[in-house]
């Protein structure tokens, strides 16, 4: 898909992270639209041109500001997938191995638990060919394993909205406790929460790496889980997953026999913060804690979600301290931090410098950003916790069960 409507206004330049890092026109949205149009007219854009397209983070920041509504990130992504270019293809095998099946996700969980040990990290760093150094650096952002304390027994909710909690693959293996907290918060907000076992990865990481074949199987499994659960909403704790599942409909033709089911599912998908705002949580007095929000690209740019997490945090008694350019990409971008380590590291450096000094935590709503920013703060020796909005809310609301139901 090539869009010819670019008016070369340049309004997109300052919002593009790769332009910010390199200062190159060819690393800007406008430059990428030009490269795509050259390629579609049969001009050989060469290895360098392909690299500039491949460097796009698909952060969608340009799409929000473009007066001609050109979906640059989406166009570049479709080009990479259709033309089988892009270093992200090297991630297809490991992603399939770990995330396409339940067994794979169990393996991933074991690997994660193992990689938390410092002695293992040190040993692995002696054999740099085994695990890429950037993957090792990311492992420093993994949450510590904690012993789960007994949860309060909640009154069953007998009436109210039925909400399916979508677990996700990275989210559930790395931040499973966040999903549990989301479940209990939705319950406190009055929802009848269901968390079907039969659900799977949304497919975003695989699809964006160029593996389009497996998507249908994953979508069918998620459709079945949703339909059997009888839910009105699908609440999602990972911004990358909700953004991708809302766009499922664009990946299937209207002639496809499952198209109507896909549309119904996509319409039910919501970020958990939007569901909680809609249902309503009790207002709490100030707790004096200062929180700064990082807006994940796939929440802010792809879904326009900025206010719901802030509304919830304020309502739970937190004081918000805004960070500059809170919606500029942190460089995580799916597997970008592994496939494009240099640009990713530079963007992470900008993000860490922007995080205010006098805060109690950074809040966010996407696991990739959480891992990336936590690793960046660790590297600089800054002891600021990086927390999912849902976990901060759970800190404030645990023990609160207003007895609805
Ligand atoms: S999607 Fe992001 S990285 Fe790609 S061109 Fe747009 S702003 Fe730049
Ligand atoms: S903002 Fe849109 S129309 Fe303007 S230069 Fe960028 S891509 Fe082209």
TrEMBL record:
<dbReference type="InterPro" id="IPR004017">
    <property type="entry name" value="Cys_rich_dom"/>
</dbReference>
<keyword id="KW-0479">Metal-binding</keyword>
<keyword id="KW-0411">Iron-sulfur</keyword>
<comment type="function">
    <text>Component of a complex that catalyzes the oxidation of glycolate to glyoxylate.</text>
</comment>
<dbReference type="GO" id="GO:0051539">
    <property type="term" value="F:4 iron, 4 sulfur cluster binding"/>
</dbReference>
<keyword id="KW-0813">Transport</keyword>
<dbReference type="Pfam" id="PF13183">
    <property type="entry name" value="Fer4_8"/>
</dbReference>
<dbReference type="InterPro" id="IPR017896">
    <property type="entry name" value="4Fe4S_Fe-S-bd"/>
</dbReference>
<dbReference type="InterPro" id="IPR012257">
    <property type="entry name" value="Glc_ox_4Fe-4S"/>
</dbReference>
<dbReference type="InterPro" id="IPR009051">
    <property type="entry name" value="Helical_ferredxn"/>
</dbReference>
<protein>
    <recommendedName>
        <fullName>Glycolate oxidase iron-sulfur subunit</fullName>
        <ecNumber>1.1.99.14</ecNumber>
    </recommendedName>
</protein>
<dbReference type="InterPro" id="IPR017900">
    <property type="entry name" value="4Fe4S_Fe_S_CS"/>
</dbReference>
<feature type="domain" description="4Fe-4S ferredoxin-type">
    <location>
        <begin position="46"/>
        <end position="78"/>
    </location>
</feature>
<dbReference type="GO" id="GO:0019154">
    <property type="term" value="F:glycolate dehydrogenase activity"/>
</dbReference>
<dbReference type="Pfam" id="PF02754">
    <property type="entry name" value="CCG"/>
</dbReference>
<keyword id="KW-0249">Electron transport</keyword>
<keyword id="KW-0408">Iron</keyword>
<keyword id="KW-0677">Repeat</keyword>
<dbReference type="GO" id="GO:0046872">
    <property type="term" value="F:metal ion binding"/>
</dbReference>
<feature type="domain" description="4Fe-4S ferredoxin-type">
    <location>
        <begin position="1"/>
        <end position="27"/>
    </location>
</feature>
<keyword id="KW-0004">4Fe-4S</keyword>
């Amino acid at each position: 898909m090539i869009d010819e409507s670019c008016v070369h206004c340049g309004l997109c330049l300052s919002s593009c992270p790769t332009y910010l890092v390199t200062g190159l026109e060819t690393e800007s949205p406008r430059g990428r639209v030009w490269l795509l149009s050259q390629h579609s007219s049969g001009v050989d854009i060469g290895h360098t041109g392909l690299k500039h397209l491949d460097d796009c983070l698909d952060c969608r920041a340009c799409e929000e500001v473009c007066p001609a509504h050109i979906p640059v990130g989406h166009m570049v992504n479709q080009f990479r997938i259709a033309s089988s270019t892009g270093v992200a293809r090297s991630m297809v095998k490991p992603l399939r191995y770990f995330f396409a099946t339940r067994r794979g996700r169990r393996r991933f969980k074991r690997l994660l638990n193992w990689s938390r040990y410092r002695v293992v990290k040190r040993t692995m760093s002696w054999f740099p060919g085994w695990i890429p150094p950037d993957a090792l650096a990311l492992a420093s952002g993994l949450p510590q394993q904690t012993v789960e304390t007994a949860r309060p027994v909640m009154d069953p909710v007998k009436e109210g909205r039925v909400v399916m909690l979508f677990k996700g693959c990275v989210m559930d293996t790395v931040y499973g406790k966040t999903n549990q907290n989301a479940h209990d918060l939705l319950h406190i907000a009055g929802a009848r929460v269901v968390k079907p076992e039969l659900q799977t990865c949304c497919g975003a990481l695989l699809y964006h790496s160029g593996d389009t074949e497996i998507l249908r199987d994953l979508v069918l499994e998620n459709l079945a889980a949703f339909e059997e659960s009888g839910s009105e909403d699908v609440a999602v704790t990972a911004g990358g997953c909700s953004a991708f599942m809302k766009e499922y409909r664009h990946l299937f033709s209207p002639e496809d026999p499952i198209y109507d089911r896909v549309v119904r599912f996509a319409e039910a998908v919501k970020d958990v913060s939007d569901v909680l705002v809609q249902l309503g949580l009790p207002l709490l007095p100030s707790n004096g804690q200062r929180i700064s929000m990082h807006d994940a690209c796939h929440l802010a740019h792809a879904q326009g979600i900025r206010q719901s997490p802030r509304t919830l945090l304020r309502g739970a008694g937190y004081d918000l301290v805004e960070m500059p350019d809170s919606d500029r990409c942190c460089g995580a971008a799916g597997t970008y931090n592994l496939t494009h380590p240099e640009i990713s590291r530079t963007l992470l450096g900008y993000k860490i410098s922007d995080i205010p000094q006098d805060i109690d935590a950074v809040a966010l709503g996407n696991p990739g950003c959480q891992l990336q920013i936590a690793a960046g703060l660790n590297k600089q020796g800054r002891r600021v916790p990086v927390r999912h909005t849902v976990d901060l809310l759970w800190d404030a609301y645990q023990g609160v069960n207003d007895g609805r139901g």
